[in-house]
Amino acid sequence: MEAARTGEKLVCDGEAIRARLIRELLLGWYGPVDPGGIRVSGARITGVLDLDSVTACAGAKLTGCLFADPVTAWNAHLPWLDLSRSWIPGLSGDLLNVEAGLWLTGAVIVGSGKGGAVALHGARITGSLDLHDAQVGNTSGAAVRAVGLEVSGSVLMSGADLSGSSFRGAVQLSGAHIGGSLALRSAKITNNGGGAVRADQLRVEGVLDCRGVKATGDHFGGAISLLGAHVGGDASFLDMEVVNRSGLALDLEHAQVVGKIFLVRSTVCAEADADSVCRDPVLVDLNGFKFGALEASPGQPVSWRDWLHLIRHHTEIYRPGPYQALASAERDAGHEGNVRRILIAQQKDLRRRAPEALGNWLTRSFHWLWGVLAGYGYLTRRTALALLLALMAAGGLGAWAGHVTDGGHHVGERVSSFGSASGRPCTTVELVGLGLDRGLPLAPTGVRARCDLNPDTTWAAAFTIAIWILQAAIWGLATLALAGYTGLIRKPT
């Protein structure tokens, strides 16, 4: 009691202190407590430290202590609480209010029950929550259950070893709001009965640091679920090792990272190449995921081809959103050529994984042909080249017609000799002009007044049909080229 009044740190060597005495001191039953609070190190705390509904007159720093029973602080109001390096059989702090910070640095917390080994449901912490290097375990529930947590500072779990057995996740941060950053760097998070991290609708105003995280889960919703989460700064997922026995490795559906996202293909895919075939089964959900920029490391952009590989081979079903987000990022960077390649890859993936969305076989065939001839509207030069080849084919047919004979006549010959015993050949230029005249829609050259297909020859009908087919192709290609260059046809999304 004297140490509490003077602010002196009480260093113990395993001596026992009653938990009830600490509670009474915090309530001010024995007079004023020094503003520095109760400071005890190395003590053995006997009994339950019951701070439920307590409005403490001072903070408590109980470091390196051995607690025989759990610490409870339901709906408590504390200036601060420091239990760093202590051994605790569970911390129950739902609806806890802490004015400065809650420190559990290096603590060993072994709890039980669905409430969580560290239970901070709906808690409010004006400072930071520090769990870095802590060891938290629960064989019948979550390791850290902090649904709806409000922290004005940062949440620090770097280097922590967190293991639980809960369908809702070993670390539960759904609906939490963190004013600073969330640091999980090099943390080991394990859950045999659900996801490793469940942080749906999480809001982090600062940075999300998941570098080097080793996460193991068993849940269809993702080993790490950030469904609908919002990160105001950067988010790093570099050097992670994520294992999920029954679902996604990483769920980023409808999440938003305002800053840069550091996520490379090797984090998810062990394949060396980004070819069309990938045998790595790891899946991510990128539907509706928005981000500011992609980087492999500070100042080093991620290859758009690697990110495209993730979208094509490591998402469960076809979704247009991830392609559009990647295209938007490349467009903002001024890489229009990459944008076209990404959007073409999107259409190919649509045909490969969701052909039913295109309609019947005729529509799917047209979609395939459109891709071949026009790159789905993104490669109009390819359409122009196909149009040029069709025109050359029409001219070639005309020239060929002048070299096919039938009973003294040529299939293509001078009009004035149609009724004669023998036909008069056209010049090569006239024959090419004949093919172009018949092949070009609405663009007669006038050459057919001198040189045309002789309808009395056996092969005239065959050449006519062939030129009709080319004419239809030229019609279609000309329309696609015009629409592509003028933007008359809306490109698919």
UniProtKB/TrEMBL annotation:
Keywords: Membrane, Transmembrane, Transmembrane helix. The chain crosses the membrane at residues 384-402, 465-488. It comes from the Bacteria. The keyword Transmembrane helix applies. This is Membrane-associated oxidoreductase. It comes from Amycolatopsis vancoresmycina DSM 44592.
